[in-house]
Amino acid sequence: MSDHGLLVIGSGPAGLSAAEAYRSERPDAPVRIVSADVSHPYDRPPLSKDFLRGETEDVTLHPAEWFTERNIDLTLGTAVEHIDTAARTVTVDGTSYSYDALVLATGASPVPLSVPGGERVLQLRSLDDGRRLRDAASSARSAVVIGAGFIGCEAAASLASRGLSVTLVAPDEVPQQKRLGDEAGRRLTALVEATGVTYLGGVKVTAVDDGAVHLDNGTTLDADLVLAATGVTPNSSLAESLGISLEQSRVPVQADMSTSVDGVYAAGDVAFAVNTAAGRALAVEHWFDAESQGKIAGTSAAGKDAGWSDVPGFWTTIGDADVKYASWGDGYDEATFVEHDDGFTVWYTSDGATVGVLTYNADDDYESGEELITERKPPPAAT
Fold this sequence. Notes:
The chain is of the alpha/beta class. The chain folds into three domains: 160 residues, FAD/NAD(P)-binding domain (3-Layer(bba) Sandwich); 117 residues, 3-Layer(bba) Sandwich (FAD/NAD(P)-binding domain), CATH 3.50.50; 61 residues, Enolase-like, domain 1 (2-Layer Sandwich).
C-alpha cells in the first residue's frame, strides 16, 4: 500500500467516523477531511432541540485537539473542483491531494420550498442555518413550520417552548401518516400539541409573503418566522462526475461501503447501501447510521473486513417526549398499535415478520424490536 492514505469529503458523522476508523487501522498514514462547510464539525440533532431552545452553545462533534492528537488534517470551507480516480487525486481550491482511498460522505441538502416567496423561508440543516433560525426566534412572536417530519415536529416544539405561537402545517392529516400510519400519526399529533403547537394537516402552502403564509384551503397564517422542514436531497453530484450510476438519487455501495469505482467508498445520507441483515440496499438519513456506515467505510478503506448489518434507527425528542424508531424503512403490510399505561408501541410487519418498531416510553419493546427485525420474527402482539 502506498503512503497517500485516506481523503474524506464531508465533515459530518459519516466523514469523521470514516477518518477515525481508518486512523485506528493505519496509525501512520495521512488522513485528510475536506468539507464545504465553514464550521468546525458539529452535531446536527441539537440544532432543532436544545440549541434552538437556547439551552446549549456546544454542538461540536470533537474539539480541535481531537484532530491534532490523531494527526487528521481538517480543511473547511473548500470546494472540490475535480476528482481523478485514475491518478487518485482530488483537486480542492487549486490544490491537488493524492489518496489511496477516497470516502464520499457528502450528506444531503434541504429541498427548497418551491412556491412564490419560498426564498423567504428559513431552513435547518447547517449550523449557520441553526444560528439564523435561533436569532430570528429571538424577535418573533409567531412562527409557521412547514413539514411534519421529525425535524419539523422537533423544531416546532422547540419554538413553542420559547414562547412563540407556532403552527405546524403539512399535507398529511397527521404527522408521518404515510411512513408510520394513522394511529401513530395521531399520537405524534398529541405529543406535538402538548408542547403548545397547533397542528394543521391536510393542507399545502401556496405562497409566502412578508409576515404571512398562504394555504391551499384559503387560510392565511400570520408568521414572523417561517421554517421549511420539507426533506432533503442527497449531495450526489460528485459521485455522478465519477461515472457512478445513481439509485434513488444516491450512490450504490456494497455492505463494505465500496462503490463501483476502485478505491472510492460512500457513506451516510448520500449512500444507497447493502445491508446484509436486510438482504438488500437501503436508503437512510439517520445520524447513527451515518456514523456506523462511516466507520465501515474507513475500516474497509484500510484493507480490513467490515460490513453493514445494523437495523436503521433513531430517537426523536418532541418537547419532553422521546420517541424511538427502528425499521428497514422500505415499507410494511400491517401496523399493530399496543397501548401502555404511559406510552405506546407500534409493531410494523411484512408477511408476518417484524420490519419496524416505534415506541414511546417502551424501551424494552424498542430493544427487543431490533432483534425481532434482524431475525425476521413476528412481534409479541402477533403471537
